[in-house]
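In the design runs reported in the main text, the only information available to the sequence generator was the tokenized backbone. The following block is the verbatim input for one such run; it is reproduced so that readers can re-run the procedure and compare outputs position by position.
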């Protein structure tokens, strides 16, 4: 076979794994610089082929699910999502389960979700003083727990349960570590806590489900979609499956939105001249109105472009992975089964041939007539592409616009740290803490 060229360097046994853990972007950029669109790096026990450039990325996103598997990359999630849920399910079942999410994220639900984002922003920021210093990573993650739990379980339960929900969720996250890839069921304290939290979560959800069925009430939330769903053979979902799928969607949508919220604040604090443009857009759209609507959220092209530029510079998912189960070839090379393939939004988003002056913050890239996202669907890939493209795109964008529309109209932000850098030690990459900003409430 004609294998893709190998990257030089790397250690015996560990290969390039240490560098991949501390700075995966530098490693993958070097792979591209030395060997082009396909380059093999060595990981412990397996080779990984880094696929960069729009053509190779397109291939990555289009390879059939029969030839590559996502299960390997998401194995550490199984104890949280549950056995037989999502990536742990056989591909045809997983496909049906993803179909249930489509229902939960359908257009008709967006009005309720959008109202939730708007209300949560009002409530959350009304507790802030007139001036203060906040850590943006912490704010993003806290706020999006509230917005997420509300869309998952409905407002009533968000009000009653979000304290306990947040704590259980944190305990489950504590179980996400390198060890969870290797030995996810060792009886360590963190894993025991994770399992206890999940069991309690199933209990809570079962109570809500029973309560709704008894009282005959219907929610306008993701839980309701899963309660109403059934498999093709007519079987309804068990409470354990409902809970597992709710957790799957929570983990897909929470930190990803949270860190994007945080980076938006940091980049806006660094670019006051662009904030002025965004405020003008808000004024032109809303005039004296303070009540936002779903239609308003869809009529903010500058804010929309800003969030796209934030996602270009700091995509929360810096690398996507698949395990090759059947050999395939691309670009004259053979990609053997047993290896992994990697595609990296971050590497893609800094290719100067697609995004000129990639280190410059320039939201106008995503406005007419440039429309860099539409022109380069296989190069602007913060949400992935192809068959497994993110299902939460509209949900995430509406949420981020609702939160930032509120903040732009009500607060000024200034930087506090000398610099703000990505923290690659996290699974979902956000700004390294501390990442504080100073805020001041605006007088109207
Ligand atoms: C898949 C990014 C928010 C639900 C993905 C993938 C990416 C991504 C890169 C593809 C993963 C792969 O191919 O291996 C993001 C980012 C978000 C975000 C950057 C926020 C800024 C959300 C939200 C939800 C969600 C809010 C749900 C409410 C999903 C689901 C999938 C997915 C269900 C799996 C799709 C499939 O495999 O067919 N997301 N996501 N995401 N995302 Fe998102």
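Verbatim output:
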């Amino acid at each position: 076979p004609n294998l893709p060229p190998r990257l030089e360097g790397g250690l015996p046994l560990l290969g390039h794994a240490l560098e991949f853990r501390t700075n995966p972007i530098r490693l993958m950029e070097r792979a591209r610089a030395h060997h082009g669109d396909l380059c093999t790096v060595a990981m412990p026990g397996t080779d990984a082929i880094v696929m960069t450039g729009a053509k190779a990325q397109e291939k990555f996103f289009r390879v059939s699910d029969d030839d590559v598997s996502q299960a390997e990359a998401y194995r550490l999630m199984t104890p949280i999502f549950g056995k037989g849920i999502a990536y742990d399910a056989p591909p045809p079942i997983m496909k049906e389960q993803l179909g249930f999410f489509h229902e939960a994220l359908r257009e008709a639900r967006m009005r309720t979700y959008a109202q939730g984002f708007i209300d949560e922003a009002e409530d959350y920021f009304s507790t802030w003083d007139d001036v203060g210093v906040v850590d943006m990573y912490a704010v993003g993650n806290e706020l999006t727990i509230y917005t997420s739990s509300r869309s998952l379980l409905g407002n009533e339960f968000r009000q009653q349960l979000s304290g306990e929900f947040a704590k259980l969720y944190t305990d489950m996250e504590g179980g996400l570590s390198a060890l969870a890839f290797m030995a996810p069921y060792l009886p360590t304290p963190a894993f025991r806590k994770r399992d206890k939290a999940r069991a309690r979560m199933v209990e809570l959800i079962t109570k809500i489900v029973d309560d709704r069925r008894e009282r005959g009430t219907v929610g306008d939330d993701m839980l309701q979609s899963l309660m109403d769903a059934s498999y093709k053979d007519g079987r309804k979902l068990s409470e354990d499956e409902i809970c597992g799928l709710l957790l799957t969607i929570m983990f897909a949508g929470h930190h990803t939105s949270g860190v994007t919220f945080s980076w938006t604040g940091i980049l806006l604090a660094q670019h006051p001249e662009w904030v002025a443009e965004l405020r003008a857009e808000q004024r032109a759209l809303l005039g004296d109105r303070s009540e936002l609507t779903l239609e308003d959220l869809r009529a903010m092209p500058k804010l929309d472009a800003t969030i796209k530029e934030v996602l270009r510079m700091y995509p929360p998912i810096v690398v996507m992975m698949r395990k090759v189960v059947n050999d395939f070839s691309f670009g004259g090379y053979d990609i053997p089964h047993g290896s992994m393939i990697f595609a990296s939004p971050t590497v893609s988003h800094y290719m100067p041939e697609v995004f000129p002056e990639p280190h410059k913050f320039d939201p106008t890239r995503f406005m007419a007539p440039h429309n860099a996202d539409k022109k380069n669907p296989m190069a602007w890939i913060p949400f992935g592409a192809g068959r497994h493209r993110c299902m939460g795109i509209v949900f995430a964008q509406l949420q981020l616009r609702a939160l930032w529309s509120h903040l732009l109209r009500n607060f000024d932000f200034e930087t506090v740290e000398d610099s703000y850098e990505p923290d690659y030690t996290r699974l979902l990459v956000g700004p390294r803490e501390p990442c504080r900003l100073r805020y001041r409430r605006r007088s109207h």
